[in-house]
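Final report, section 2: Outcomes. Of the targets proposed, Transposase is the one most frequently requested by collaborating groups, and we therefore present its record in full.
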Amino acid sequence: MTDAEKLRIIEIENERLMEENEKLHKVIKRLNQTLNRLIGRYICADEVA
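The predicted structure is given below as tokens.
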């Protein structure tokens, strides 16, 4: 395997990892929004009680 082939394989893997990282960031963002909403509701419910 030539250096160019090895480099291409690494570039492909890097692209795949970057795409996976972006997906994970989106999931984390949604989870954070959900958590913030739940905390907000908990605080509101606690203030009412």
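The radius of gyration is 21 Å.
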